[in-house]
Amino acid sequence: MYRIVCLLLIALLLEIGPVNAQQPITLITDKGPVAGLQTPTVTTFFGIPYASPPSGDLRWRAPQPTKDWITPLQTTTFGNECVQVASGLFNASGKTKGQVTGDEDCLYLNVYTPNSAVAKSQLPVMVWIHGGGFTFGAGSLYDGSVLAQKYGVVVVTLNYRLGPLGFLALSTLSAEADGSSGNYGLLDQQAALVWVQKNISAFGGDPKNVTLFGESAGGLSICAHLASPQSAGLFQKAIIQSGFCTSPNNNVSLAEASRRNRTYGIRVGCPDANSTCLRKMDISTLMSTQVPGLRGLGNLVWSPVYGAGSLPLSLKTAFARGAFNRVPILQGTNHDEGRLFISVASPDGDALPLFKYWAGTGLLVGAAKNPRVLAQYPARTYSTPTLAFATVFTDAMFSCPALEVDSALSKYVPVFAFEFNDPKAVTSLKTPAGLPSLGAFHSSSLVYVFQTPLVGIADPAKFNPKQRALSDALGLSWANFVKNGNPNLTDGSQWRKFDPKRKNVQTFTPTGIAEKTIFADDHKCGFWSKLGLN
Fold first, then answer.
1. Is residue 205 part of a domain?
2. If you average pLDDT over residues 338-358, what whole number do you get?
3. What angle is formed at CA 247 by the lines to CA 474 and CA 314, rounded to 5 degrees?
4. What is the pLDDT of residues 207-235, one digit of tens each?
5. Domain containing 371 — which CATH number?
6. Which residues are designated catalytic?
7. Taking the C-alpha atoms of 380, 382, 386 and 390 in order, what is their torsion angle to the nearest 10 degrees?
């Protein structure tokens, strides 16, 4: 009898399948049921629409609610990426550089939640805003499963409109709405945050404990949400990684952008940048038409604009006045941010000759200030002109603007500052000629936090033991901040709040984690402050 029972149990288990197989699970949102997949550790829901497709008459309008549905929506595959032009950076998907890809029907988000938490817990929520210069990228490129399972949090990743579809400012468009235009991608992100407030409880998350986190353009987006009255109450903490929030050339007024983009609209083929004409224009024409005007090196062609509506003040002004959504802040940069962009400055792959270094810094700071920069960063003190230029770019565009933001925000809210500095950060990218290595390049810290492969960037399987420990420490500090508003680790290390007088920055390296007060000197921030570039 015992043998028969055992055989029956074995047969039943074989019929059910292995215990680690994915199982369907259905939850209810405010618009209808969604059917995801549950594993023994993580439950996922991919491609949940948080707004209607912004196409046709909805192109260049605020995101509109989706229609309700009754039949469970299958959310086992990612939704469309937003329309974008394939970049030369991180392009490991086989897309040709310059190729227009994606779809206007793209306002989808993804949820990763610990298996045991679904509809039972009120866990901290992390909402990820991806980078890509506001022109490329997607939430689906970032796997939140390890963060969810390892730290007991609910992770949300999202798409938002990019390029001209997300950030076209025009007087003709402003006349249709609330007197402003140009921040449609920012409005998309806000719509996703509203969705989180309405629905994340069903996924085990706490809508009263939401942390925004993002990198590069995603970090700049978070700074915009700090300054946007419309984002008030939608999040309780913020993590800004490499956000260049007050970097030179990247704070553009609505009026300035509208003047510039009027010529763009005409070039597209729409007299007087007529909005009706623009909404009928094919995507390829919109994405391939160049925006007129000369801009400094490092300037973003498409980005949030200030002056009305969702962003009344420039970020620098809002932070200086204390006119922002006051939440605890964790902000950091990478020690060698600028090394990644050498491949953009030298697309032929050659090392920068001396004259290109001189010219490159001139494009960054302007002809009048260039001699002072070259005197402060003489090429002879670096191994190559390429390294000299990468260092200038790091300090001017990332490190010192971040320190400026830390100083401004810390007058009103708790700020914890950090620097990621693995001099041999794991990567699948090729080191450009003229650099000793990519070092702790722009975006290199992401694989250390997510601990999952990032296409075109790196794979955590390549970590050595010290890098694995560094990854664990960085990820745990972020998780602690998400849970408690304090990133301090449990190993006794002390991470003190940022003090503008001490300029203390927590430094993460493979050999240890320690507070340092030399960050400003290391990146010559006193020089950049006097230069008046930031």
1. no
2. 87
3. 110
4. 999 999 999 999 999 999 999 999 999 99
5. 3.40.50.1820
6. 216, 337, 442
7. -130
